[in-house]
Amino acid sequence: MKAASLLNLFFICLCFSIPLTGQQVNIVDPPRGDVVVENGKPVQVGCKVENCDNSCSAQLHKDQLMIWHKETGFYSPLKDELMFVGNENDGDFTIRIPKPSIKTDGFYKWKFIQRKNNKFQRPIETVAAYINVTIKPEKPVITSAEHDKLFLIKKRKEGVEKVEIFCTANLGKPPPVIRLQVGDNQPLLPTRSFSVASGISEEISKLHNVTAKFEIDLDRSLDNVRVTCTATNYATKQLGISLESSAVIKILSPPTIHIRQTPEGHVTENDTVTIECWSTSEPKVSVWRWKENSSSINIRTSTYKFIARRRYHTTKFSCFGDNRVDNASKSVVLMVQYPPRFLNDAKPVQINLTMSESVELNCKVDAYPTAIVYWTKDGRNVHAGESYRFTVDSPSKLGKYVCTAVSVRFPNVSRDMHVFQKHKPNIISKLTQTGEYKAKGSLTCTALAQPDPYRFIMLKNGKTVPVSSLDRLVSKVEKILGGAKYTLTFTELQSSDFGEYNCTVYNQLGSDWKLINFEETKSPDLKYILIGSMAGLLVVILLIVIIVSCKLRQHSSSGKVDKQAPVTISNCLLLTVTDSNASTTPMHVEPIKNVVDVDKKDTFPDDNICDLSNYSEHWDYSTYPGDFIYDQHYPDAIKQSYLPAARPDSRLSTNV
């Protein structure tokens, strides 16, 4: 135990005197007043009497237990705690307490008894004092009702609410008084205080543990405000010290969850979807959880990324956030757009019935947005809706019906349903089939029947083909539209496999049989292959020769112009004749001018290579009886072009 912080000695001297025959013990200097001593500072208490010589017996008691006797001295357990510093023979029974502590706290009583003829005589003179040791408490500790160690306070709702704050000061004597100061406001007295004795030992039980409860109005304005708890008692006042502890109010709110889906709104099947959650409260969310409807997802982050499937349509995705104060959640319902899909069997459906019987065709479609369903037969609309019920009262009602699902966002989808009249089997296989020796081959027997055939029998030479006993034989029956197909597969055809087979088919309405001749395929003769190859090669060579010859003849032709070949004005020169006697007059050749606007891709009929009819104003036709066009593409030829003012009959021919 720590030494006492402060010692306060209350001495109450009570002297009782009964007259004796002879000398009487008198208290001449009893202890008076209170003495306050700091922790560890020695203190002494004086008590002097008269007429207590060798014939006087003196004793010192503490809490009704004798701890000192004049003849024997101090006893345990205070043997080392107390000592006499006066002269006992002179009646000075002053005691000294070197280190005051809780052990020295208690009720002390001095007893003085006269002795005559070695016998103690009454009355007994006594003097008593109560030594009250006061001890300052330990430093107080602040907690809140919301948290044991940290001074954190929850803010569960908006507005004002009460919050409880506790301040505890231990091991004080007398019990300390505790006050709480919030910010710069005046200190508050507790609404309730609890004082509990320690109870570990008799001495410690004199110390008190005090817990004070304070209720304050908590709102957002107190966030980050400091509160101070102060504990005082008699000892702290005498020492002039202040025992206090401080903490900062930190208002913690439950999480406020926000959620965002990307892309927003409706998504399309197979899109990548990201759902993100975040919180704006303090403290931040430390634990995230997710659910699909009511099922948990193994995701522990604030973001959930996945591929949109049609099964997620209208699924509610919820994220839960926990920030040590409380938890909260936010949800979003995913709307997935997906193309139409038939819910029942996607293969073509066939229904067999008798005439005048009713039938219902069902075409259940799953799509979002919801698809529109209609039925057609032979290209004509016959019904709208997923179910179509009708009576087959004529052969025209038999056949293929097409169910079509129309979606505003996706391509249409269709499925076929066939309505057949019931009939016995009818074999439609080829009656002659072939296979190659030593190669893999198959023999098929196809039959139309409603209802479907339930049995195929394949005979050869009057005996059933031993499919199960031969490893190289495999049989298979597969459903086809309006019936079934039986296939007998040979992994390696032998000579004995060729021949005549009898195929018999059964259904509930009857049977049918056919003889199928299975023949060996003959390989073509090699000489015919060679002859055909050589003939093909000769044809190719002949074609090449014809093409080359045509090209050569085209280039060897002189003075002939392709009438359809486009010629641009830039390739033309104007040949002018300055005299009517053109055959004896030298020619003058010059480029055509001012033809910028001429369409350079025009093609001209007859012998005209360049048409200058729109540019006649550039030449004086009275001076030049004729103008000729010289084509640079064909330098050996001059083609005459008559302009509008030229004389048609004055054609000239010359070479350049």
Topology record:
Elements lengths: L5 E5 L15 E4 L4 E5 L4 E3 L2 E3 L5 E7 L2 E5 L3 E2 L8 E2 L10 E3 L8 E11 L2 E14 L8 E4 L7 E3 L6 E12 L4 E6 L9 E6 L10 E11 L7 E7 L1 H6 L3 E6 L1 E3 L4 E6 L4 E2 L3 E8 L7 E6 L2 E3 L5 E5 L7 E8 L4 E8 L1 E7 L6 E5 L4 E5 L2 E4 L3 E6 L2 E5 L2 E5 L7 E8 L6 E9 L1 E5 L4 E4 L5 E10 L4 E6 L2 E2 L8 E8 L2 E8 L8 E9 L2 E11 L5 H31 L15 E5 L11 E4 L35 E5 L6 E3 L16
Parallel strand pairs: 14-21, 23-30, 31-38, 40-47
Antiparallel strand pairs: 1-3, 1-12, 2-5, 4-10, 6-7, 6-11, 7-8, 9-10, 11-12, 13-15, 15-18, 16-19, 17-18, 19-20, 22-24, 24-27, 25-26, 25-28, 28-29, 30-33, 32-36, 34-35, 34-37, 37-38, 39-41, 41-45, 42-43, 42-46, 44-45, 46-47, 48-49, 48-50, 50-51
CATH fold description of the largest domain: Immunoglobulin-like
Beta-strand content: over 45%
Strand arrangement, major sheet: 3-1-12-11-6-7-8
Count of DSSP H/I helices = 2
Q: What is the straight-line distance between the termini? A: 141 Å
Query: In CATH terms, what is the architecture of the largest domain?
Result: Sandwich
| Percent helix range | under 10%
Count up the domains: 7
CATH structural class of the largest domain: Mainly Beta
Q: Tell me the major beta sheet.
A: 7 strands, antiparallel
Class derived from helix and strand content = mainly beta
Report the count of strand segments.
Answer: 51
Overall morphology: rod-shaped
The whole-angstrom Rg is 63 Å
Mean pLDDT: 77
Low-confidence stretches: 1-22, 558-656
CATH superfamily of the largest domain: Immunoglobulins
Keywords: Disulfide bond, Glycoprotein, Immunoglobulin domain, Membrane, Signal, Transmembrane, Transmembrane helix
Transmembrane segments: 528-550
Signal peptide: 1-22
Membrane topology: Single-pass type I membrane protein
